[in-house]
Amino acid sequence: MIPPSFEYLTPSNISDAVALLQKHGDEAKILAGGHSLIPAMRLRLAEPGYLIDISGIGGLDYIQEESGQLRIGAMTCEAALEESEIVQSKYPLLLDTAKMIADPSVRNMATVGGNLAHGDPANDHPATMLALRASVVAEGPNGTREIKIDDFFPDFFTTALAEDEILTEIRIPSPPSASGGAYLKIERKVGDYAAAAVACQLNIDSSGSIENIGLGLTNVGSTPIRASSAEELLKGKKPDENMLAEAGRLAAADSEPMEDLRGSAEYKRALVNELTQRAIKLSLQRAEGSR
Amino acid sequence: MGKYIGESVLRKEDPRLVTGEAKYLEDIQLSGMVHAVVKRSDYAHAKIKNIDTSEAEKVPGVIGVWTGKDFEDVNPMPCAWQAGGVDNNANTPRVLEIDKVTFTGQGVAVVVAEDRNIAEDASSKIVVDYEELPTVVSAEEAIKPGAPQLHENAPNNICMEWECGNQEGTEKALGEADVVVKEQLVNQRLIPSSMEPRGAIADYQPATEEFTVWMTSQAPHVHRLLATAFVFGIPETKMRVIAAHVGGGFGCKIFLYPEYCLVAALARKIERPVKWMETRSENFASTTHGRDHVTQIEVGAKNDGTINSLKVTTVANLGGTLSTIAPGIPTTLYGRLLSGTYKFPNIYCGVKGVYTNTGMVDAYRGAGRPEATYVVERALDLVANKLGMDVLDVRRKNFIQTNQFPYLPADGITKGLTYDSGDYEKPLNKALQMFNYGNFREEQKRARDEGKYLGVGFSTYIEACGVAPSAWIGVGGEGWGAGLWESANIRVHLTGKVVVTTGSSPHGQGTETTMAQIAADELGIPYEDVEVKYNDTLGTPFGYGTYGSRSAAVGGAALFNAVQKVKQKAVRIGAHMLEASPDDVVFEDGKVSVKGSPDQAKTIQEIAGAAALGYSLPEGDEPFLDETAYFDPPNTTWPFGTHICVVEVEKDTGSVMVKKYLAVDDVGNVVNPMIVDGQIHGGIAQGVAQALWESGEYNESGQLVSGSMMDYAIPRTDCLPSFELDRTVTPSPTNPLGVKGVGETGTIASTPAVVNAVMDALSPFGVTHLDMPLTSQKIWNAIQS
After folding, report:
1. Residue B731, exposed/middle/buried by CB under 10 A (0-12, 13-18, 19+)?
2. Which residues in B lie closer than 8 A to residue A192 (C-beta atoms)?
3. Alpha-carbon distance B194 to B253, whole Å?
4. What is the CATH number of domain B15-133+195-248+253-286?
5. A7-53 — its CATH code?
6. pTM for the model
7. CB contact under 8 A, A263 and B777
8. Nearest to B693 among A188, A191, A267 (CB)
9. pLDDT, tens digit, for every residue of B430-464?
């Protein structure tokens, strides 16, 4: 279909973009890579009167590790994550995720910031960032503020961004040594939304016990979900098969899936259970391998 | 054969396709052209009480807004295949519906505006007042007492009832069988999803009352005939139909759609060219769908695996209204194929075609034959399971033997058509040379011990292609409202360059290339010297179009015969030039030469020049080499083969991985191996897709829930392994080229091979049948229970 008419605005810096947001309020939408918003507009599911394209604003496209943090500019495209040496060497969870988002042509356009700011629980980065215990930087009329990822998705298709704020950066704590992560997804085909997916990030101590673990779940609830009961179970433990099975059960219990074409709620819980166990195992292997 | 037939020459079509120069319908711009957008019903079953177009009319740039009442003088679309006694014009769509709608996505109003965006915006301002009616989307539910009724003239929503074979004899044989297997097999609804959606552009000349209509069409001559003689009631000669480049169809562009006639009616009304191009969402909702059968089978067998009876009853969902040839698909093209490659002595098939509040169902790649093959090949596996026999032993036990050809399937199910040739063990044995079955069974056992579930599935199929003898399929036969011959014209110009025009209407098949190969070989001229023109009713002889794997077997045969006529005339003119008697010369390698004196020769180019100049011709011969032939096949062709699929099922998630896919097909002689392999590749992908992923789903209120590319799971390349292909060659005796057609082979053969493989993998869990698509959820559920 064809979207209804809208005004297309191209600010050259963030403060102009923020000013436009202030001026047009909820009639305006930020356009980043456009791979969620434009399909929604074509189907007239979203009908913004003003489209503020921030792709012309420089300096929002970077991947840098400094002072114990990985900083990703909001306009960094998924393909850049895949190609980044630092991501390839130290952030297997991010690498897994980037490789699994849609297909290569989408990843050349779609941005990390957009994937989060769209607020869609079916997107992949929300769960990833939960597992990585990331935070995001929002810039508004009164400057910037940092929002913990756990506070960023209050409700279905809703984020903690104020109407006049723009997500500009994602900050991920640099993993300690002996860290590993993984993202596993079941989808009907490449490019489909996940029937369910699980993100895991952990590090182990010298005895092989888990020091810290983050588990995020994709598309099994109205928001991205942190599998906190499984995280609590595993913290400080060196899990055997039984404990992994229990972690899977707990993660499944923390999920709140709805039935759709991709499966029943029961089936999706079973997937969360299985994928959680696999993601933890793979993360543990990777952590051992990175010693 | 010659220099080109049998060679993978590069496709003539490709330079313009791969460089983007090819002009598809959406690329065509006419001076003064305006744009139409169709307002479609949001309800699956409703009376139209009122349509308020006033707000839409006020939008600047809108030329007009019309509803069905403005086109009461335009007849409904015809139903051109009256199988099972369907009355012509019964319950077919109108250019815009007037009183009621029977599925979501039917057109109820149209906006014409200076540009597409304006028309789309204005369309959203049309207010339709509906009185909602109760809906029914399942064909089985629709025929039950008390179901919502769609059409007054179709009690219990039954459109037609049809049968073939011998019910009494089959039931008696079932009673005499050692074992009887009963199963319900659902062949789910599919959505064709050609890369290019549908569209049409109409231009009207008031002075001559002539239309030119561009449309996404697999059959421009048929579209013209139906639109003029049936819908508008004007002479056929007052319309020219051009198919431009067509970006795939898989059957869905055979049919005359309301929108194609709507743009013509609009162009006549406003006297400006009108374009309509559907969106992908409209394509999902309003273009025809395929399959959608619910079938009960009963198979009787002796303890040694000999099948003595097959009884099939099918409820076929035809949608809310009838598409152009809808009744023929679940009848002639389905029931008549139910003997497969097997000598079943007793067969019966009864079919009910049913209206429901869903999109129209009509031919989709394979059209009836995939549904039949699915029934037969699943039945063989179910019998093997029941008897604890190997699936290949049961197949071999029941194969028609080579000394039985020509073979007439039992109980008259083919209505007199015989399998003209075949050797069903041959492709099976060749496939088994490529795939070590014994080793696989051992590997399967080992893998199961390790908690891995492998399965293998076979499909030793037959199909009927090159449809069809006109008298057999036509009115008085199977109810198809016309003939099914094909035509070709060949002209050898003064310079020796050749133009072929064909009534076939390719839309991605590479027919331009294969036709040129045939003409070049038969005339002994370079392939580059042949141009093949098609897809335009002006300048091509009448033809029924491209579908049913018929363009090589019927259209190619017509071309072959036309070339023979040219050669006969060339022999006469060549002999005249050589001052010899026609009996004393031969035509070979593009030359007419005196027998025994190959140096005394005239090339076809020299002869064409002489024929075109006409200075000196044999007495009684007219100038120019220009011949047309019409070929009506005496039989369909009968391709067959063996497909083997290996899958792995993951127990904990239910996911299926296709690990290996082998196909050995016998499609007769092969004109272009690359094109044939390409057809098989695409066909297999579509067939595997039905087995594992695709499903057109409506909810209870008749909303299409699989109405976008995100929701309808078309596979991508990474879902499929590399296919291993080979062939056996049993030339078809039905046509002079010995070809059989290949367009639908992969789709027909592959679906049951995949399902059989998954069921084999699930056998440790006691699962014997699951309905398609075999989604991971369905498999996981089956494993859990």
Report:
1. middle
2. 710, 713
3. 9
4. 3.90.1170.50
5. 3.30.43.10
6. 0.96
7. yes
8. A188
9. 999 999 999 999 999 999 999 999 999 999 999 99
